[in-house]
Design a protein that fits this description.
Elements lengths: L3 H25 L9 E4 L1 H9 L13 E4 L6 H34 L4
Helix pairs in contact: 1-3
Length: about 110
């Protein structure tokens, strides 16, 4: 059974996977002439849906997007973004664990 929460968490994990790949590419190409920084937008769309008056089911339409920026990557910025993405991934992983734990309790009637 795929709930809205599970769907959003799955999309978040996909976005963070893509972001880690983009950041890795940015770091690997720091000295490549003409390389343009890659980024992944996800949280901005999530905030837009959260603040809209529309149905909460609009959250199911949220998709991460890879964006090619006009600037070159800067090592310090990329490392800070890597740390931020790692924390967001851990948060989403904990939320997924909690979601499945609640499902297990609902099915078996006991935790752990």
């Amino acid at each position: 059974m795929k709930t809205m929460t599970l769907n959003l968490l799955a999309r978040a994990m996909q976005a963070y996977t893509w972001r880690m790949q983009a950041l890795s590419s940015n770091v690997a190409n720091l000295d490549t002439p003409g390389y343009q920084r890659l980024s992944v937008s996800f949280e901005e769309m999530l905030q837009d849906v959260r603040h809209s008056i529309e149905s909460p089911h609009d959250a199911l339409d949220i998709q991460a997007h890879v964006v090619v920026e006009d600037e070159a990557p800067i090592l310090e910025d990329e490392l800070m973004e890597l740390a931020d993405t790692q924390m967001r991934t851990q948060l989403a992983s904990r939320a997924l664990h909690g979601h499945f734990n609640k499902m297990r309790i609902g099915i078996t009637g006991r935790s752990g």
